[in-house]
Amino acid sequence: MGVRTIVDHLLESARNESSTIRRSSVLLLFAYCSQSKANISSNLSQLIRGLILLFTDSNEQVLNQSWEALNAITKSMESKEQMEYVSEVRNAVRYAVSGLKAGAHNRKTQLLLPGFCLAKGIAPILPIFREAILNGNPEQKEQAAHGLSEVIELTSAEALKPSV
Fold it and tell me: Where is the Stalled ribosome sensor GCN1-like HEAT repeats region domain (predicted)?
């Protein structure tokens, strides 16, 4: 019960209007996810959704810390476990994109998710898609391929270079 309370509070604070509070909350989330010995497995869906939503933040430090926290979570997951989160990642990305404003378009009117446009921006979620594509059942493979395609469309060419 304590883990859920901590995660709920930190994710709620990460949506605060104050960039200082958002940065602090995400930094604590990263530390908690990467250093805590607590079992966060029952909160993985919530963390994935919340952190991908933070990939829309306008503050670069919040984006970077959100990326670090999501990366720590993905690395803590077993390969077989990662496959189970393909639809969760896809839904989180869709939800995050739905909240983006028209100002997030580049000159070619391509909608970009700011967190994916960081250097290695898509790296935390690539293992999830890769595992499903390589080892999933046909439905999981299809979902992962669609998800990867959607993510690539939301990522700048510059940010994709390290992943290709």
Answer: 2-120
Find the helix packing angle between 60-76 and 44-53, rounded to 10°.
150
- Find the length of the chain: 164
Range with lowest mean pLDDT among 8-22, 32-46, 69-83, 84-98:
32-46
52: nearest Cα among 113, 105, 103: 113
Element containing residue 52 per DSSP (H, E)? helix 44-53
C-alpha distance from residue 125 to each of 24, 25, 109, 151, 154 (Å): 23, 21, 24, 9, 13
Supply the CATH classification number for the domain 2-163: 1.25.40
Helix/strand/coil for 129: helix
pLDDT of residue 22: 96
